[in-house]
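Hi all, long-time lurker, first post. I run a small reading group and we've been trying to get comfortable going from sequence to structure in the token notation. Rather than ask abstract questions, I figured I'd post a concrete chain and ask someone more experienced to write out its structure so we can walk through it together at our next meeting. Sequence below, copied exactly:
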Amino acid sequence: MAWYPEATRYELQPESDDQPAIRPTQFIFHSIAAPWTAKRTYEYWRDSTNLESHFGLGYEGDLGQFIGTETRADANYQANRRADGTGAISLESASNLEHTDPWTAEQIPKLIDVGVWAHKTHGIPLRICRSWTDPGFGYHSLHAEWSVGGTACPGAARIKQFREVVFPGIVARAAGPFTPPKQEDDMDPVDVWSYHGKLDGKPDPRDAYAYLRDTETRAKRIEDRLARLETQSLTDAQITAIATAIAANPKLADAIADKLAARLAN
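-- Answer (accepted) --
Happy to help. Here is the structure in token form:
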């Protein structure tokens, strides 16, 4: 048997021990059409009927559990326990006598919390049941097979809340809060400046900008040199004459190399 640790345990006997086991695949929300606390709902199940739900929720957010969620409870008609052993978890919540009022601000967080627990504990998928046997979450009037002769439970106001607040809340909570990636701290400007020159033995804050400007200037200068070399290439006759001169006087090679280096430096 599975017991939700945040609910007060009001265990129904002999039902808790005598009723057959289920494998929970659905969670169905109800309204009990009575303004009862969780304890009063337990007393009603115990003393006045042979039916019961797994959970009861009062107006003030007091949540009680009456049967473990791996034991059949009899609030969902054909979904209580199917032939394959699967079944639905049921929660009855306090309402007015016509179950026309919305869930209170105290009830909604508890509905979301227990729904998340059911998802994590039993693997109930985060979707609204597409058929009466389809695993997921729903409300009592969603499928005819879940009630005897039809029902409006839990009422139009709560069905709207289920679709717009409760079920999306279960999905969002079960998925976990979004944690944005950690932002890297900005680099301390001194770290950048310290890579380049010094001023009186300390990092020179002006040098980073000077370095960047100088890099751009040197790049432009190299481009200009390459362009000049392309337009001033030697003819075959000039190359032959230089080679002949170097062969006759090997020392000319050093002189020519020096001149070329000086030429490229300009």
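A couple of things your group might point at:
Helices lie at 15-18, 38-48, 107-122, 156-175, 189-193, 207-231, 236-248, 252-265.
The chain has a mean pLDDT of 83.
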